[in-house]
Amino acid sequence: MLKKQEKVFLPDNMSIKKIAIVGNPNVGKSVLFNVLTGQYVVVSNYPGTTVEVSRGRMNLEGTDYEVIDTPGMYSFLPITEEERVARRILLNEKPDIVIHVVDAKNLERMLSLTLQLMEAELPVMLVLNIMDEARKEGVSINIQVLEKELGVPVIETVSTAGKGIEELKKRIKSYGNGL
Length: 179
Ligand SMILES: Nc1nc2c(ncn2[C@@H]2O[C@H](COP(=O)(O)OP(=O)(O)OP(=O)(O)O)[C@@H](O)[C@H]2O)c(=O)[nH]1
Ligand SMILES: [Mg+2]
Fold this sequence. Notes:
The protein is an alpha/beta fold.
């Protein structure tokens, strides 16, 4: 006779935290996604659309994360199908962290999306990517001031060279414990 099950285990994915990577097209979201997740990636069409969304896994010191690479969006008010999918992922899947990736060369222009995401009360982190080109152009950004002004973590990266990734992981791990 079968013994009655004594413990109810939560399905594996109940304890997994979700991270959505968002931002304008061509800012390095997918490069960053690949650096964070490695090889275990699932690419599928978002239900009811032809827009591809990649999902992968990352483990940071014993905590599992599902990382979602969202299609490029210019605004949180969607016009294109890609933008509608990105918005739906943010609103329906309620990620624990929303990593807004910007091209550091065009920071000012891209900050309006950061503010829109914050206004929607999403848990935002700002990644200033492509810092190598920005520095070459003479752009320098005072991270401490920007963090204070925005009230969210700000991290500089060169995703293609793996620079800033350790710091980013540290800030992901400690997200929610203050700046
Ligand atoms: N120099 C430099 N190039 C980068 C960096 N990160 C990404 N790139 C380049 O930027 C281009 C766009 O990168 P993707 O990761 O495809 O950009 P994306 O944001 O996913 O773009 P969409 O999927 O179209 O929204 C690629 O040619 C990358 O090699 C960086 O830190 N420095
Ligand atoms: Mg991409």
